[in-house]
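Researcher: Good morning. I'm working through a list of sequences from a screen, and I'd like to move beyond sequence-only analysis. For each chain I'm collecting a predicted structure so we can compare shapes side by side. This is the next one on the list. No need for commentary yet; just the structure.
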Amino acid sequence: MKQALSLGILAAILFAIFVYFQELIGASAFYIAALSMAMFAVIGPFGDYLKTGIAMLIGVAVAMAGIVVLAGKFPLPPDNTAYIALVSGIAIFVLVLLSAIGLRIDAMFIGWAGYNAAVFPVYLTDASLLAEQALPAAVGVSVSLLVGLVLSLIVVRIAMAVNK
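Model: Good morning. Structure tokens for this chain:
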């Protein structure tokens, strides 16, 4: 029980630090970490967290490439619905292909969706801002997801300690 309490305190402190510094790292949507924490708790105590983290980062990279291509090569809102569908479909196809080499498809999807959730409103309102916000948003989402992954590992360890 002592181990579970100490790990719980560690998880709470890490999340509090993350929330406090969220603007510094460009992670204005800190709820992404909580979402990934909930999702990756299903990996379990013996899951491959490194491979999952890499897959998340690949998902973020694919989403960032898609948004950059949308903003640079295709018509901007409101005349872009077909292009959004095309680029999104291609991105999902790329993620499915990458899952064939052993990467976790769920982790890539959450990375892709997290990045799109962070920058899509900017793209729709003023795509020119993406030139300065695309990379910081990718860093913020990546940090958010990786913090969630680490916190989920701690939560799984708490559950293991409590259930001993």
